[in-house]
Amino acid sequence: MTQSAPKSPPNTRLNLDRFLPYRLNRLAHNVGSSLATIYADAYGINRSQWRVMALLGQHERLTAKQICAMTYMDKVKVSRAVSGLVDLEHLQTTPDKNDKRAVLLSFSPQGRCLFEDMVPKVQRWEDDFLSKLSKDEVAQLAHIIDKLDPSHEH
C-alpha cells in the first residue's frame, strides 16, 4: 500500500490590494467622497439626500418605498434624507391616490432649480474623473460593470 503525498494546505493568504470586493468598495468610497464635495460643500446636502434628488431628477415622482428599492438604502436612511430635503424646502409631498398610506415625493420649485444647477457640476466631475481613461476604456468599463451588476437588466 503506497501512501500518497500529503496535500499542501489551500492558500490562506489574501492580498486585499488585489481582492476585487475590497478594491470595488474602496473605489466606491473614494468616488462617493470626492463627488460629495460638490453637493455637500456647495449645496449643503448629504450623500443620501443627493441620491434621493438624483432619482427624482430621473423619475420626477417617487414614494419613499420606491427610493429604498432603487438605492438599496434602508427605510430609516431614506426617511431621514427625505425629511431633511422637505425641511430645506427642496422636496414637496403629495398624497398618493393609489395608496393612501404613501406620499409621492417631487421637487419643489426651489429643489428643481438646485438640482438643475447641480447636474452640470456633477457631470463635469464625472468627465474629469473618467478623463484618465480612453473613450474605449470608458465604454469597456461601462460594459464590464453592466455584466457584473446583478441588478442590471440585460
Explain what you see.
This protein is mainly α and 154 residues long. 61% of the residues lie in helices and 6% in strands. The chain has a two-stranded antiparallel sheet with strand order 1-2. A hairpin with a 7-residue loop joins strand 1 (91-95) and strand 2 (103-107). Helix 1 packs across helix 5 and helix 3 packs across helix 4.
Q: Which oligomerization state do the chains in this entry correspond to?
A: single chain
Give the low-confidence spans.
none
Q: Considering DSSP H and I runs of 4 or more, what fraction of the residues is helical?
A: 55-70%
Radius of gyration: 22 Å
CATH architecture of the domain at 47-133: Orthogonal Bundle
Topology pattern, helix = H, strand = E:
HHHHEEHH
Q: How many β-strand runs?
A: 2
Structural class: mainly alpha
Tally of separate helices = 6
| Overall pLDDT confidence | 91
Q: How would you write the strand order of the largest sheet?
A: 1-2
How much beta, percentage-wise?
5-15%
